[in-house]
Amino acid sequence: MLSHYYTLQHMAAFLSKTVEGATIAGIYSQDRNQLCIHCEGENSGTIIISCEPSFNYICSRRGASRAKKNSVDIFPSLTGGPIRRIVCNENDRIIHFFLEDGMRMDVALFGPKANIFLFRNETLDDAFLRKRELLAGEKRSPYKLVAGDTARIQDAQAFVTRFRTLGSGLTIQHALRSLLPQLGITLTAEVFHRCGVTAASSAEMLIDRDLERLFDTAHKIMVLAQEELHPFIYYDGENNPTCFSLIPLQSCEQYRAETYADINEGIQRFVSRKLRSASFLKGQESLLSRLEKAETRLEHTINRIETELQESSRADEYERLGKILMAHLPVLSKGMKSFTYENEVIALEPAMSPVQNAERYFVRAKKSKIARGEQRERLVDVQRQHAQVVSLLDEAAEIQTSEMIVQFQSSREKELAQFGFTATGAGKELPPFRIFTVDGGFQVLAGKSSENNDLLTLKHAKPDDLWFHARGSSGSHVVLKMKSATGQPSKKAIQQAASIAAYYSKMKNASMIPVAMTEKKYVRKPKGVPAGTVVIEREKVLFVEAELPSDT
User: Fold this and answer.
1) Model-level pTM?
2) Fold of the domain built from segment(s) 5-135
3) Helix, strand, coil: what percent of the chain each, to 5?
4) What pLDDT digit, counting tens, does each position of 176-214 carry?
5) What is the CATH number of domain 150-263?
6) pLDDT tens per residue, range 15-71
7) List of residues 6+ apart from 468 with CB closer than 8 A
């Protein structure tokens, strides 16, 4: 409900009170699909707008926290100008920021189509997302405002009449949302809960009295949502926010609820908790996924060893053949390629004497016995590792907070290290770089500055490590550590490392970014060149998007 029509009405009113008349000190983006507007005035602060497809919201926070790196200026022509007026559109989920010189910035929170548009005298002048596509057209408004006819349904009789004209085949949910789109998903569900109606039922099943009751309930809820109330957050579990609402929800009475002083504080808290919860779930999912892969790999190894052990050992066979040759030395001679005994052909080495051929079979018998013993020992070791992984999986599945993940990784550091997990125990000194884990458990390091890039490439990278850098742009040196996990890195791991290099480059906001890749042994630093400057050979160019791996 963060981008609900009534939520945006309340947020527009809040922003009108707090930042109208303020000066825009800067507009920038430092996170994917997120815009920040830093305002200076009586109530200095930053307006945060998220156009993330599944997580639209707008809120304000005090002060400014622009990152020194990896942030990009947006709509630079607006910097230094005032915010004249802020209003919510009467018919749709759009907040209008009226500026000076005929400029207007529209925040349109339409889910996957969310965007921020800049108009000059009603002509589209710029856009936050999909700018090239939008400006290539006729530069008209990219959305069509819905006429307010549905908002004028003021009584139950008019509602019933309109309901009956919708035609057959609709569910009650579709019919109600068609007639009263202002309700949105959360409040529509609340209407059905209070009326005891099943949303998926056919609309034709309701009699007029049921429809009148449905409208009366919906109307009361909409009136309540428009009033100045303290917003609610409902939690499914201790810290997992499941729903944000402008009104108390009877349908969520089984959940723990918190209420806040104003709309902005409520949205801030919900967003913070939701992001923290999402981060925990992502971290736990990554942990479980990697342990499950380790479990599967060990199970395959166990099956392979058991299959090999089940096959009859050739040690006894080699020893038997050696004894046959020793018993028939008088009839054997050097140069023979084989010897037939009781219809059995025994292979011989022509360059060896009869005694040497017999000895060769005895040696092979001995090696076979040793190998069989080693396989048994290896089976015991692999079975032990498998039992450890199963134990770790059971423990990891019970983790409920991000703090518990850290504690788990610290307390089980030695066991996790066996399966390619990077040690992150408390007090352990880590390299002074950005550290990531990519597909297969491989560690990737990224430099933080020109001097730090030199330290990474010249001191910490090994000759066979893979080295990455955005081609034709300044940015971080990135190194994939080849010995940080077992086997060879997959194509996905290499692509992820290249994407990290693209992310920490000046070309971060381009759609596809060329990244040079080579082995570190082909990277050298000539004398006298500036910090961070190197010369590379035998490069391969990958085209990737700028993003960080999901399990970091």
Assistant:
1) 0.56
2) ibrinogen binding protein from staphylococcus aureus fold (2.30.310)
3) 45, 20, 35
4) 888 888 888 889 999 999 998 888 888 888 888 989 999
5) 1.10.8
6) 999 999 999 999 999 888 999 999 998 878 999 999 988 889 999 998 877 877 778
7) 477, 478, 479, 480, 497, 498, 500, 501, 515, 516, 517
